[in-house]
From TrEMBL:
This is uroporphyrinogen-III C-methyltransferase. It is an enzyme of class 2 (transferase). Its EC number is 2.1.1.107. Keywords: Cobalamin biosynthesis, Methyltransferase, Porphyrin biosynthesis, S-adenosyl-L-methionine, Transferase. Pfam families: TP_methylase. One of its GO terms (biological process) is methylation. GO terms for molecular function: uroporphyrin-III C-methyltransferase activity. Pathway: Cofactor biosynthesis; adenosylcobalamin biosynthesis; precorrin-2 from uroporphyrinogen III: step 1/1; Porphyrin-containing compound metabolism; siroheme biosynthesis; precorrin-2 from uroporphyrinogen III: step 1/1. It comes from the Bacteria. Gene3D superfamilies: Cobalt-precorrin-4 Transmethylase, Domain 1 (3.40.1010.10), Methyltransferase, Cobalt-precorrin-4 Transmethylase, Domain 2 (3.30.950.10). CDD domains: SUMT. Belongs to the precorrin methyltransferase family.
Length: 285
C-alpha cells in the first residue's frame, strides 16, 4: 500500500486516540473520496467499513490498521446496528483511532446519525466527514442532473425500505407524486413493484421517464432508461439488480444529451432538445 497523496502543508484535522471519525466513502469510484476522509484512513488504527466501500479505497489505509467488516445487504445476514455502534464505542475506549467508513454520505440513509447519537451517549469524541451521495453523484455519472432549471425547482430523496426492511409505509406517496417533480429513490429494487405502483396510484403519469442506475460510478455501472409504467418489467427483462439508485422525473431525459461518459467513448448525443422529445424505449447500457 502506497501513500496516495502528500498531505504536507494541508490543514488536516487532528485525530487523537479514542476518537471515532464517521467518513463518507462516496458512491463507489475511489476518486470521489474526499481528501479529509483519505487523511483519516491513513491515520486510523481501526476501520469499520460497509458493504459498498470499494476495496481500492480500503487499500489506502495505514498498513497497520485493522479492518472490520460491518456491511448490511438486503436479504443477507448482516450486522445489527446496535452491535456496530457498541463496537465503535469499544474500540474508541481501547484508545484506538477509529474510522467508520460508510458508502455515500453517512447522514443520507446511512444511519450515521444513529451512530453519532450512540457515541454522544457514551461520551466518545467523534468527527464527521461527509461523502458524495449516490443520489447525486451516481446520477451525475449517468448524465442525469437531479436539478435542471427548465425541469424542476425541487427534488425529493426517498428510501426504498423502512426499519423492518419492508416497503416504506409512512411515506405520503400521494403528496410526493403530485408535489415533487423529481424523486430519487435509494435501495428500492426489492420493493420496486410496490413503490412504482404507489406512485402510479397517486396519479403520476405512467409515461414519466425513469432511470435505474446500478453500481453507480463503478466500472460495471449500468443505466436503464424506461418509464414509470414499464420500470418493473424492464428491470426484470434487463436483469438490473442492487445496489441501484432510481430517478423518477423529466430530468431523466437530459441523459439523451449529457451522457458524458458515453460521449467520451465516442457515442453521439441522442437528442439536443430532450425536453421536447418522447421518452426513449427501454435501454440498458
Amino acid at each position: 500500500m502506497q501513500q496516495p497523496f502528500d498531505f504536507t502543508g494541508m490543514d488536516v484535522p487532528e485525530f487523537p486516540a479514542g476518537m471515532v471519525w464517521l467518513v463518507g466513502a462516496g458512491p463507489g469510484d475511489p476518486g470521489l473520496m474526499t481528501l479529509q476522509g483519505l487523511s483519516a484512513l491513513r491515520r486510523a488504527d481501526a476501520i469499520v467499513y460497509d458493504a459498498l466501500v470499494d476495496e481500492r479505497i480500503l487499500a489506502w489505509r495505514h498498513p497497520d490498521a485493522n479492518l472490520e467488516y460491518a456491511g448490511k445487504r438486503g436479504g443477507k445476514p448482516s450486522a445489527k446496528q446496535r452491535d456496530i455502534s457498541l463496537r465503535l464505542i469499544e474500540l474508541a475506549r481501547a484508545g484506538r483511532r477509529v474510522v467508520r467508513l460508510k458508502g455515500g454520505d453517512p447522514f443520507v440513509f446511512g444511519r450515521g446519525g444513529e451512530e453519532a447519537q450512540a457515541l454522544v451517549r457514551a461520551g466518545v469524541a467523534f468527527r464527521v466527514t461527509p461523502g458524495i451521495s449516490a443520489g447525486i453523484g451516481g446520477l451525475g455519472y449517468a448524465g442525469i442532473p437531479v436539478t435542471h432549471r427548465d425541469v424542476n425547482q425541487a427534488v425529493t430523496f426517498v428510501t426504498g425500505h423502512d426499519q423492518s426492511g419492508d416497503a416504506p409505509s409512512a411515506i405520503d406517496w400521494q403528496a410526493l407524486a403530485k408535489g415533487s417533480p423529481v424523486l430519487v429513490i435509494y435501495m428500492a429494487i426489492k420493493h420496486l413493484p410496490q413503490i412504482s405502483g404507489a406512485i402510479l396510484a397517486a396519479g403520476r403519469d405512467g409515461a414519466t421517464p425513469v432511470a435505474v442506475v446500478q453500481n453507480a460510478t463503478r466500472p460495471d455501472m449500468r443505466v436503464l432508461e424506461t418509464t414509470l409504467a414499464e420500470v418493473v418489467a424492464d428491470v426484470e427483462r434487463h436483469g438490473m439488480g442492487s445496489p441501484a439508485i432510481i430517478c423518477v422525473g423529466e430530468v431523466v431525459r437530459m441523459r439523451q444529451v449529457i451522457d458524458w461518459a458515453g460521449q467520451l467513448e465516442g457515442e453521439k448525443p441522442r437528442a439536443l432538445d430532450p425536453l421536447g422529445s418522447a421518452p426513449p424505449a427501454a435501454d440498458a447500457s
